[in-house]
């Protein structure tokens, strides 16, 4: 799920349309073997690396030079097999079978080599010029695993090179081997798999209908048998079992494991982090800790950033006056567009700059797949796929990123479930509203506010599960799919890469989209607050017209209008409320939370109003960026409208119920 600027952002390109340089090499491999790290090291491009299956859902391309050749390296999706039906496997299979690849480098994990050889054998059925790149040699050494790569090369009949991809200098032998294969100095002669007599006869019969050399007719026949287009269950089982047996036999004598299990530490950690009793308490502890660090750190940085950005208003205003701009233009640009942008940046950037590195840290050390493992059972009971846990986690940073992340879910039905419910998870744009209201009305300290925020987030996750269950039993009924989730070893995080990936590829990517949406919103808000009809601003008129319905929800017209105008960016909800209550005509700041609380109470707020506002913040229509992302992912007006209507309906039901039960307080 390569959620980066290069793979899903504005920088994403139709790379297949670009003219390719020199020799085209496909980079294949299972998930979690360091394939993208090899790609980055060779090409110098930042391609997001991750620790769960299907992390890279598209292909990325980059060029690099060796001593003798120029290569185009194509990073195809990580997959366990070329013969199944998921989107990742189809994308990898289509790329390798297209005939546009001159050679294939298959990246394997040195710590679990035999498991990776299944894919190697499938690729050698499809391609002659294959090089096996055994990565993570340093981890294998630290675990006491010794590898005889020369023996493996003899067994496979293809060149085998050992590397530690994070140390770029170790890739020199791989580059030399690519040159040798390209020049014909080394000619791979892959081991051919022989199946049972019955299966071989079926393969011959099926391949007879193909007149193809690219891809080979034999491979097409095996594909048809394994995907159910030809043959029977016995033939499919025989192919799977034979490939697995060959992998074990080819690896015999190659990998020597230490007498004591090399993963003792990992197993001990997993007993705590994935244990039946301890898994969920530990998850909640991590969530509370991350929210506390994010909230306490972001408050300080936001104040400093806001002071600096708002200090620029005066020189901007002076500049417009000097160039002779009319007062209305100055007000629209400075008090409207710029002030809203300053709000969005100062409120949104700090929590993202803290949350995303923490999120990436959990991903880098290998804990994120454990979260998916823990949540697989409740999601399965709700009729969803366990991978939805990963997209839910991404939604905490940005719901748009979470929606794009749903590409990792193979089943179209389950992918829609994840897309339609992702906005129930509060993104970082809603955290300022939640934390401010919690602090003002229910908790004075940052610690207690973070604790209450944790329980608030839990309630949103539970609502997401409830809605997922309802949808899976009604409009999105269907069979549940299964998926393979590999729990990677715990690894030492690479702090430098974490900062680069989280800041440049996530934080700035999301911030740019929010800023583009907030700029026109700033102009609209300024116009509504300054244009009058009968001596009353349009903002006040619209708020008054919404009052009856908003009161039923435990809100008022100003609050509901603030959520409507906050459609481009949730960060501006509270500032719009302040502007409407103070009738300033521009977005306003407050000196302290206690002063803001006095303003809200003076306008009729009660603790019930605060709770309803928080619940509506958790459950209402997604922002414009998220909805546009839903459209781009589904290409369906129906499902885009459903993504808008479902959380909105849930929010209205919950808020009206709270108001009916406790509104008398």
Describe the structure in your own words.
By secondary structure, the chain is of the alpha/beta class. It folds into three domains: 15-183, Rossmann fold (3-Layer(aba) Sandwich); 197-256, no CATH class; 279-479 and 492-662, no CATH class. Helices cover 60% and strands 6% of the residues. The chain is built from 27 helices and ten strands. The chain has helices at 35-43, 87-97, 113-126, 137-142, 149-156, 172-183, 197-207, 217-226, 233-251, 264-273, 279-311, 313-322, 327-365, 368-381, 388-397, 399-405, 412-421, 431-441, 446-473, 495-530, 538-552, 557-565, 573-582, 593-602, 607-618, 624-634, 637-662; strands at 23-29, 60-65, 70-75, 103-109, 130-135, 146-147, 160-162, 255-256, 532-533, 536-537. The strands form three sheets. Strands 2-3-1-4-5-7 form a six-stranded mixed β-sheet, with helices on both faces. Helix 3 links the parallel strand 4 (103-109) and strand 5. It is elongated, with a radius of gyration of 28 Å. The chain starts with 22 loop residues before the first strand and ends with a helix.
Rg, Å, rounded = 28 Å
Report the uncertain regions.
1-18, 46-57
- Oligomeric state of this protein: single chain
Helix content: 55-70%
Distance between the termini: 48 Å
Q: What is the count of β-strands?
A: 10
The shape is elongated
**For the report, how would you describe the main beta sheet?**
6 strands, mixed
Structural class: alpha/beta
Q: Spatial order of the strands in the main sheet? A: 2-3-1-4-5-7
Counted by DSSP, the helix tally is 27
């Amino acid at each position: 799920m390569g959620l980066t600027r290069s793979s899903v952002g504005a920088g994403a390109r139709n790379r297949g349309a670009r003219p390719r340089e020199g020799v085209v090499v496909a980079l294949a491999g299972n998930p979690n073997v360091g394939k993208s790290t090899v790609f980055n090291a060779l090409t110098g491009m930042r391609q997001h690396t991750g620790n769960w299956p299907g992390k890279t859902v598209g292909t990325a391309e980059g060029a690099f030079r060796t001593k003798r050749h120029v290569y185009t390296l194509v990073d195809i999706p990580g997959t366990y097999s070329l013969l199944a039906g998921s989107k990742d496997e189809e994308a990898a299979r289509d790329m390798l079978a297209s005939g546009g690849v001159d050679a294939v480098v298959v990246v394997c994990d040195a710590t679990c080599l035999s498991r990776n050889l299944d894919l190697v054998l499938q690729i050698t059925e499809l391609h002659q010029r294959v090089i096996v790149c055994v990565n993570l040699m340093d981890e294998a050494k630290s675990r006491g695993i010794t590898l005889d790569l020369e023996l493996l090369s003899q067994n496979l009949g293809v060149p085998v090179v050992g590397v530690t991809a994070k140390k770029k200098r170790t890739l020199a032998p791989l580059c030399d081997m690519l040159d040798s294969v390209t020049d014909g100095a080394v000619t791979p002669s892959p081991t051919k798999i022989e199946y049972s007599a019955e299966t071989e006869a079926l393969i011959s019969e099926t391949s007879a209908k193909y007149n193809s050399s690219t891809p080979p007719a034999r491979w097409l026949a095996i594909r048809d048998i394994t995907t159910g287009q030809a043959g029977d269950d016995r033939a499919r089982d025989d192919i799977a079992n034979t490939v697995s047996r060959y992998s074990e036999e080819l690896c015999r004598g190659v990998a020597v494991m230490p007498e004591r299990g090399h993963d003792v530490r990992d197993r001990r950690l997993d007993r705590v982090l994935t244990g039946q009793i301890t898994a969920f308490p530990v998850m909640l502890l991590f969530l509370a800790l991350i929210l506390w660090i994010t909230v306490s750190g972001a408050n300080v940085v936001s104040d400093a950033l806001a002071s600096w950005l708002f200090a620029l208003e005066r020189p901007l205003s002076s500049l417009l006056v000097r160039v002779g701009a009319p007062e209305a233009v100055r007000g629209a640009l400075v008090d409207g567009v710029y002030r809203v942008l300053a709000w969005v940046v100062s409120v949104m950037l700090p929590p993202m700059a803290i949350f995303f590195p923490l999120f990436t840290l959990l991903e880098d050390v290998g804990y994120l797949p454990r979260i998916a493992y823990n949540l697989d059972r409740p999601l399965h009971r709700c009729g969803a796929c366990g991978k939805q846990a990963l997209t839910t986690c991404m939604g905490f940073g940005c719901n748009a990123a979470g929606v794009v992340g749903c590409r990792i879910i193979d089943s179209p039905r389950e992918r829609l479930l994840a897309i339609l419910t992702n906005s129930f998870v509060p993104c970082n744009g809603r955290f300022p509203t939640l934390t401010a209201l919690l602090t003002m009305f229910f908790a004075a300290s940052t610690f207690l506010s973070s604790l209450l925020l944790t329980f608030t987030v839990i309630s949103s996750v539970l609502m997401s599960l409830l809605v997922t269950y309802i949808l899976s039993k009604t409009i999105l009924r269907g069979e549940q799919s299964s998926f393979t989730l590999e729990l990677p070893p715990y690894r030492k995080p690479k702090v430098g890469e974490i900062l680069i990936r989280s800041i440049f590829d996530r934080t700035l990517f999301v911030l740019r989209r929010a800023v583009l949406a907030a700029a026109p919103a700033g102009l609209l808000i300024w116009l509504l607050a300054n244009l009058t009809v009968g001596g009353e601003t349009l903002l006040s008129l619209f708020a008054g017209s919404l009052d009856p319905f908003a009161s039923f929800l435990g809100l008022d017209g100003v609050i509901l209008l603030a959520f409507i105008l906050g459609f481009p960016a949730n960060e501006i909800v509270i500032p719009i409320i302040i502007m409407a209550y103070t009738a300033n005509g521009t977005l306003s700041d407050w000196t302290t939370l206690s002063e803001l609380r006095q303003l809200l109470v003076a306008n009729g707020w009660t603790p019930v109003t605060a709770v309803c506002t928080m619940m509506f913040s958790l459950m209402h229509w997604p922002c414009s960026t998220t909805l546009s992302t839903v459209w781009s992912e589904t290409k369906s007006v129906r499902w885009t409208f459903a993504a808008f209507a479902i959380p909105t309906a849930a929010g209205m039901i919950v808020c009206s119920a709270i108001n009916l039960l406790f509104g008398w307080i």
